[in-house]
């Protein structure tokens, strides 16, 4: 076998930085191998991917030490175009990387650049579209596709070049659980049929491991700390060391007191499941105390809410729901089901076209966006949509401008909010110098400082690694304990299980389910239609015939204990 | 969604069926002819043609209402400015002076000036709808391939089409950001004009950052798929020229020749009824 990619004593420092982002990388990837690269944010895994596909040094220059060989050739001697013939990259956000307006046109983009004649081009586009199941969508506009279809179209656009190395940068970040699983299955099939080299960069390890990989590379602080078979990586504790979330079923095994060995094949959920012993699990369950549920009063009530952009095509219909004070509700559903629209209608960004919104029993349906925002704050998914000032302090103060507070009051609120959000040390920082998670916090702070009763967040944890995810969720849970009522839009079923007091399933503009998260997981039909998946913990509980609710809760409690040891 | 200005509007119509190249050539000839002439007869014929084309395209008035009203406002302001600077420009052009109203000081009202301003407004009323029609019936990438076909370097052509493609996205961003501002009590759509103008500036920074983010991603995606490597490129969306295209181009060429002949045969760009 020949080497597809080789890193020899490689280090890289971005031009704008003084410390290297990659240090002393030694890595060999052989042709036809399946490699998963994992690491927390800032570990350098994306930088490594960019060194492979050539964005480094062509788009992001810096100091390059050591060697990178692609198919035996020095990477620095290959142009970006030469590299694109060997390496096809699917970027993280499929929406942002589309160049064409229609699917067919976008798939053809690389061929156009290679000056392929039109008849041949059409033939190749059709062939590749069949491979990725988008052949019926060639004329569709990209905006009309579902998340999974977009991902497949993006993949097709890369496949036309016949590159024998496929590189995926966080392919699951914007997909719902079912679409994610389908995307992985497609990668699996393509790799098997054509024997291409497959490199996936992701931190959602369990979701990626639905297909087999040859090796997992673990990166921390710019270095490779482990490079081994998935079964070894999952059993030797290196993931905890790197603060990455191991598959839930592995956590469950450790909780149940089992020693996870690589011979047990922890990278495959099905064979591994047989290792669990019902009596052990039942014994452990006895030890965990049961959680008590508190009663609460209704704060926000929706009655027969409706919304449409155009008469006759409702986006929301008959939405009736109640949100209790001081609780956290998660809102789940397929892309395009109406979750974001619901959030916009609640926060006054859009006017309802029917129904009522009651806050503490008062009708607030006809309030203007500014009035509504005083009680219901909405944190958008993209922090850049909300940030309009240079410094952290200025931004948070800006939110108070319209409240006409006294200066003393304003200063007091500012300091309190900064401290509550853990931003006090950064108060005089330029916002653009902050990390993604910190920016997100600034946007939350700029809403919190207005003291709303309800906070709605659109995917607050999307694209964040385990530590940042937990930090964010623990922070939000803290707000809840202070009495805040939270509504969170998410795709992450484990988040739903761990944090929500109530879950609302939105499907085709209606609320199809509202109740406990465990109640939802029992309704397979509903889950299937909403593109959601049961988590592996649930599968284990079913397999062992133990109460899934207690089982999941126990493991969550154990996980939290482990997290307390992070520093 | 609410108002989508100047984006491509998908329809089946004879105008949509023409190749981008035909529409581009047609648009360029038509506007050149109209820019050169002040001849009322020519302008009226051109105006008639533009109305007919609009009907053929099946684009409805309300789909482009916003832009048309917006530009109409500008045209009127422009005409007013012309009058304020040169109240007797018409007299100079047509060489006669029929006073309708003496007015105040130099601001007289003459038949010649009114006729001149009428021509001016007519001219824009002919050009603007055609420009809008061109933009909303030409698929952005087809537009790029047409620019490329008539000799514009493909990188520039592609940049233009990319800009057109992102108009709706940037509009959506703008609305989201404006809403986010209003949600913090920062008025963008009401309050005094000065306040609104000042607050609108606050939208620009987030819009800039979101757009830069978009640009970075898309330019990486383009680089990774080999854009800009060759000296030429082919176009997936290029339609082949059909009979209807040749007919359309011939018509527009004849119309242009007609307009130039009528405009210049008496050695003057103005039609003089006085």
Protein architecture, described:
The complex is a heterodimer of chains A (567) and B (274). By secondary structure, chain A is α/β, with parallel strands linked by helices. Chain A has 2 domains: 3-246, P-loop containing nucleotide triphosphate hydrolases (Rossmann fold); 298-534, 3-Layer(aba) Sandwich (Rossmann fold), CATH 3.40.50.300. Chain A contains 24 helices and 20 strands. In chain A, the strands form 4 sheets. Chain A has a 6-stranded mixed beta sheet, sandwiched between helices. In chain A, helix 7 links the parallel strand 7 (165-169) and strand 8. In chain A, helix 4 runs parallel beside helix 6 (147-159), helix 6 (147-159) runs parallel beside helix 7 and helix 16 (392-398) runs parallel beside helix 18. The longest helix of chain A is centred in the N-terminal third of the chain and has 18 residues, at 177-194. The radius of gyration of chain A is 25 Å and the shape is globular. Chain A starts with a strand and ends with a helix. Chain B is mostly helical and 274 residues long. Chain B folds into 2 domains: 18-139 and 240-274, no CATH class; 152-236, no CATH class. Chain B is built from 10 helices and 2 strands. A two-stranded antiparallel sheet of chain B has the order 1-2. In chain B, helix 2 (20-36) packs antiparallel against helix 6 (111-137) and helix 8 (154-182) packs across helix 9 (193-224). The longest helix of chain B has 32 residues, at 193-224. Chain B is flat, with a radius of gyration of 23 Å. The model of chain B has no long low-confidence stretch (mean pLDDT 86). The interface between A and B is large, with 68 and 49 residues.
């Amino acid at each position: 076998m020949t080497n597809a990619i080789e890193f020899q004593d490689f280090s890289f420092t971005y031009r704008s930085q003084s410390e290297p982002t990659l240090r002393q990388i030694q890595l060999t990837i052989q042709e036809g191998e399946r490699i998963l690269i994992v690491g927390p944010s800032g570990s350098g895994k994306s930088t490594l991917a960019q060194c492979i596909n050539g964005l480094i040094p062509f788009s992001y220059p810096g100091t390059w030490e050591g060697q990178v060989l692609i198919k035996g050739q020095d990477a620095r001697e290959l142009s970006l175009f030469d590299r694109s013939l060997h390496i096809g990259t699917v970027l993280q956000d499929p929406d942002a990387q589309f160049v064409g307006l229609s699917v067919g046109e976008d798939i053809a983009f690389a061929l156009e650049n290679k000056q392929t004649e039109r008849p041949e081009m059409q033939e190749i586009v059709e062939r590749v579209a069949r491979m990725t199941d988008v052949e019926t969508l060639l004329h569709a506009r990209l905006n009309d596709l579902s998340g999974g279809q977009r991902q497949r179209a993006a993949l097709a656009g890369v496949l036309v070049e016949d590159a024998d190395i496929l590189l995926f940068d966080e392919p699951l970040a914007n997909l719902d659980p079912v679409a994610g699983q389908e995307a992985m299955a497609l990668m699996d099939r393509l790799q098997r049929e054509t024997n291409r080299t497959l490199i996936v960069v992701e931190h959602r390890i369990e979701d990626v491991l639905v297909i087999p990989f040859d090796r997992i590379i673990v990166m921390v602080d710019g270095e490779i700390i482990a490079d081994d078979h998935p079964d070894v990586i999952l059993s030797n504790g290196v993931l905890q060391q790197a603060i990455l979330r191991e598959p839930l079923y592995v956590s469950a095994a450790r909780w149940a007191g089992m020693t996870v060995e690589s011979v047990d094949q922890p990278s495959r959920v099905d064979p591994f499941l047989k290792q669990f012993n019902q009596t052990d699990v039942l014994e452990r369950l006895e030890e965990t105390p049961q959680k008590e549920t508190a009663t609460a009063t209704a704060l926000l009530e929706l009655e027969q809410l409706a919304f449409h952009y155009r008469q006759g095509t409702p986006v929301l219909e008959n939405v009736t729901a109640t949100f209790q004070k001081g609780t956290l509700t998660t809102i789940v559903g397929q892309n395009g089901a109406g979750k974001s629209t619901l959030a916009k209608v609640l926060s006054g960004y859009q006017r309802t076209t029917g129904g009522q919104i009651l806050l503490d029993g008062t009708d607030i349906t006809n309030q203007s966006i500014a009035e509504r925002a005083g009680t219901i704050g909405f944190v958008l998914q993209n922090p850049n949509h909300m940030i309009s000032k240079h410094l952290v302090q200025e931004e948070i103060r800006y939110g108070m401008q319209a409240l006409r507070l006294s200066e003393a009051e304003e200063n007091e609120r500012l300091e309190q909010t900064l401290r509550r959000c853990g931003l006090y040390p950064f108060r005089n920082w330029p916002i653009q110098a902050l990390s993604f998670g910190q920016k997100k916090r600034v946007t939350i702070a700029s809403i919190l400082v207005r003291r709303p009763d309800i906070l709605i967040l659109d995917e607050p944890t999307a694209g964040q690694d385990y530590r940042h995810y937990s930090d964010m969720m623990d922070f939000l849970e803290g707000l809840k304990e202070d009495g805040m009522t939270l509504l969170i839009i998410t795709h992450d079923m484990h988040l739903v299980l761990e944090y929500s007091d109530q879950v609302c399933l939105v499907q085709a503009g209606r609320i199809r389910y509202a109740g406990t998260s465990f109640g939802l997981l029992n309704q397979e039909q509903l889950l299937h239609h909403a593109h959601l998946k049961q988590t592996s913990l649930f599968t284990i509980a079913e397999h062992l015939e133990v109460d899934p609710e207690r089982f999941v809760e126990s493991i969550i409690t154990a996980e939290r204990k482990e997290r307390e040891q992070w520093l | 969604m609410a108002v989508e200005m100047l984006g491509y509007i998908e329809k089946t119509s004879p105008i949509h069926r023409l190749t981008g190249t035909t529409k581009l050539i047609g648009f360029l000839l038509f506007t050149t002819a109209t820019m050169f002439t002040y001849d009322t007869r020519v302008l009226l014929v051109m105006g008639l043609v533009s109305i007919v084309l609009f009907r053929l395209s099946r684009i409805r008035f309300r789909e482009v209402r916003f832009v048309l009203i917006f530009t109409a406002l500008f045209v009127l302001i422009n005409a007013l400015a012309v009058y304020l600077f040169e109240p007797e420009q018409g007299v100079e052009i047509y060489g006669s002076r029929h006073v309708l109203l003496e007015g105040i000081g130099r601001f007289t009202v003459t038949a010649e000036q009114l006729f001149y301003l009428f021509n001016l407004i007519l001219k824009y009323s002919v050009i603007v709808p055609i420009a809008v029609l061109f933009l909303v019936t030409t698929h952005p990438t087809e537009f790029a391939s047409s620019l490329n076909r008539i000799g514009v370097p493909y990188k520039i052509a592609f940049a233009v089409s990319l800009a057109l493609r992102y108009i709706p996205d940037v509009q959506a961003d703008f609305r989201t950001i404006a809403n986010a501002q209003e949600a913090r009590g920062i008025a963008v759509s009401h309050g005094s004009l000065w306040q609104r103008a000042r607050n609108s500036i606050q939208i620009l920074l987030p819009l800039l950052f979101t757009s830069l983010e978009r640009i970075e991603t898309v330019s990486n995606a383009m680089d990774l798929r080999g854009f800009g490597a060759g000296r030429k490129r082919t176009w997936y969306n290029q339609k082949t020229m059909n009979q209807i295209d040749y007919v359309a181009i011939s018509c527009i060429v004849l119309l242009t020749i007609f307009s130039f002949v009528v405009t210049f045969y008496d050695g003057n760009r103005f039609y003089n009824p006085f």
